């Protein structure tokens, strides 16, 4: 199960707390990447106003892309594809 990241946005007297998954969205759910690594060092997620690291997110690999493509193809071939009109897609 991927981890979650909570962030408290502050703007002009307003404060909004929100929660994001740090995983990859594959087959209708958030999952960790197959290598269980993050992109912190490759392309860090930085707060531009402070320059500080906001969070680490899951790194996708070729294997993860293959899983995502297989899940999308299965969805298209079975429940989604021709059964859902273009406007809803």
From TrEMBL:
Listed Pfam families: Aldedh
Taxonomic classification: Eukaryota, Fungi, Dikarya, Basidiomycota, Agaricomycotina
Record-given protein name: Aldedh domain-containing protein
GO MF assignments: oxidoreductase activity
Positions of the Aldehyde dehydrogenase domain: 44-80
Organism the protein comes from: Thanatephorus cucumeris (strain AG1-IA)
Source organism, top-level taxon: Eukaryota
InterPro entries assigned to the protein according to its UniProt record, in alphabetical order: Ald_DH/histidinol_DH, Ald_DH_N, Aldehyde_DH_dom
């Amino acid at each position: 199960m991927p981890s979650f990241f909570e962030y408290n946005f502050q703007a002009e007297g307003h404060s909004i707390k929100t929660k994001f998954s740090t995983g990859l969205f594959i087959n209708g759910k958030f999952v960790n990447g197959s290598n269980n690594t993050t992109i912190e060092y490759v392309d860090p997620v930085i707060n531009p106003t402070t320059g500080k690291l906001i969070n680490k997110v899951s790194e996708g690999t070729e294997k993860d892309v293959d899983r995502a493509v297989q899940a999308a193809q299965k969805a298209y071939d079975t429940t989604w594809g021709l059964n859902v009109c273009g406007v809803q897609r």
